[in-house]
Design goal:
Blueprint lengths: L2 H20 L14 H11 L2 H16 L12 H4 L4 H17 L4 H27 L3 H8 L4 H21 L5
Helix pairs in contact: 1-2, 1-3, 2-3, 2-5, 2-8, 3-5, 5-6, 6-7
């Protein structure tokens, strides 16, 4: 295996682990807890190739599915990933992938990729939540999306900045 590929696999694993830690920083505000896992998905997309970004978040999802307590509130297992909020966790794969597809482009392209990824994550998660709970679309949006938009925008800004800093100061030297 080439050195660059090994490095990217290692970074993907580290970002999956970081996402697990970030998910534990929780503020319970309703049926979908506020946590920092979306920041990990954004960062994966900004630092990795599209395939590796999806692999990183897929690893996080798999860790949760096999029972490791990596989801918000130290949850894990099939019951957790298939819970009403599990669609948002599955949406991290889309978020990371879209972000990574745009990460090599101009700043507006990177922002667009992050925004599209977040919209896809919200769409999958909200559809999953509606199917699991029978909640109406307006109610699901008011519970599961609207309260998170400002914080998720802040996470995107922080990931954008941190990724640029890491690329300049750390990752080029490794």
């Amino acid at each position: 295996m080439k050195k660059g590929k090994t490095k990217e696999f290692c970074i993907a694993g580290l970002l999956a682990a970081c996402t697990a830690v970030l998910a534990q920083i929780v503020i319970p505000i309703g049926p979908v807890p506020f946590n920092l896992a979306v920041f990990g998905a954004f960062l994966s997309g900004m630092l990795l190739s599209p395939g590796m970004a999806v692999l990183s978040m897929g690893t996080y999802w798999l860790m949760a599915a096999i029972g490791l307590p990596v989801m918000a509130g130290m949850q894990g297992g099939l019951g957790a990933v298939l819970s009403p909020t599990g669609g948002y966790v599955a949406g991290y794969l889309l978020l990371a992938g879209c972000t990574a597809l745009a990460a090599k482009g101009s700043a507006p392209m990177r922002w667009a990729g992050m925004a599209l990824g977040l919209v896809l994550c919200y769409t999958l998660g909200t559809a999953w939540f509606i199917l699991a709970t029978g909640t109406s679309l307006p109610a699901a949006l008011s519970l599961c999306v609207v309260p998170f938009i400002p914080a998720d925008a802040a996470k995107a800004i922080a990931a954008f900045w941190l990724a640029q800093t890491l690329k300049r100061r750390v990752l080029q030297k490794v």
